[in-house]
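Aim 2, interim progress: modelling of the iron/sulfur cluster-bound target.
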Amino acid sequence: MSESLDVLDSAVLEAVVEGEVRLTPQQALRLYHEMPWPELARLADARCSTLHGDVIRTYVIDRNINYTNICTARCTFCAFRRDGDEGDAYTLEPEALLDKVRELVNICGTQILLQGGMNPHLPLEWYENMLQVIREEFPRVHIHAFSPPEFIEFVHFFAPGNEFGSTLEEKLHAIMSRFQAAGLDSIPGGGGEIFAPAVRQKIGMGKCDAEAWLTVMHVAHQLGMYTSATMMFGHIEGIADRIHHLDLVRQWQDRSIEDFSRDGGGRYLAFIAWPFQRENTPLGRVKEWGQGDGDDHASPFPGDAVARLDGTGEKQDHPQFGRRIRQAGATEYLRMQALSRLYLDNVYSIGASWVTMGPQVGQLALRAGANDLGSVMMEENVVSAAGTTYCLCESLLCHLIRDAGFVPAQRDNEYQLLKLHDTDHAPDILVDDWSTVRAKKLRVQGIDERTPQTIELAVEK
Ligand code: SF4
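Predicted structure of the complex, ligand included:
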């Protein structure tokens, strides 16, 4: 869109909703600052309906399996990782993995999300064997696995010389091809966090930079795989950093479509954003902006003072940068999700993030640009180690979708509908007594109590 167009003009916004014009970063920033969030949500809802219709909203049944918690990275927002010599460090044996997949299949689940820490002790063949074992035993289960930072570590672990090629792309291509041949279907967008270098260097110690992250996904697209992109916000970053993040996803998606779509290539199918969870993490001990000695409420948040729409902000631009955070609540989450729906005109799905925000906010997200309520959550370890997460059964997910005014439908990884719940046999319609169906809330009580505890929460009717 031309910068000269007034992005607050109703005709211009109508064109954005119809997908006829594309927001620029500057216009997105203006929308963020000048449009009330309910209005932004309404526009994103309209854009979502343009793309997905206004009848059906979806969910998937999958299971997170964290095959190891041993990790060489030291992300400041992580309470899950362990060093190899810690007492509760683990790596799952194949049988334990298969048991978990079996439990998923027993509840009609279709996909596993397989992720681990970056464990230097596991050879390439260990991963191939893990994928092959699952593929042979469960040929119809979709394996959505690893993440770009894991693949960059795999390059360091498995291809330090030139035997797999000399460039990062060649090495990635060689390793990912082997994983794909062993059973890998697609790659989730873990480790996206915030792409701007100044932020990433502060919060993702040991994780790959944005260029490497995006290159992994570009190679996956070349190999015909679908992937997702993510953003974790509400910590040290500025608003311009978030828009820069969205812009990089959109630019690299354009590249993948341009480079590979004619040959059956993949692309980003989904974008999911969630606010940082502070409990039990090093980053969570950083003071909230405004609560530290000498914080000047009248001056900008340090992250905003540093952030640039082109990602060139530098940490020395503010002495408090990285030393104060600005957490995001429910309305901030909905505002960012709505903006992402409007901005990412080339990404099919926007996923709601109830895992961290809670079911009611997740439901609201379906009216703020999200077309998908994510997954029935059988297991989650990484985020729940860093605070509170929620677990919902299928009937509750369907209930939330229907109460938001839509027909719930189970989908697969590629957003094909598997079951449309428009009859009396729908999982939520079959519930006689909602007082017996509860959302589970998982959380760790304290930094030294590392076993997640389960607390039952009544579902409001
Ligand atoms: S978030 Fe992932 S990569 Fe970072 S320390 Fe935790 S397990 Fe390791």
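Residues 71, 73-75, 78, 80-81, 117-118, 149, 207 surround iron/sulfur cluster (CB under 6 Å). The radius of gyration is 21 Å.
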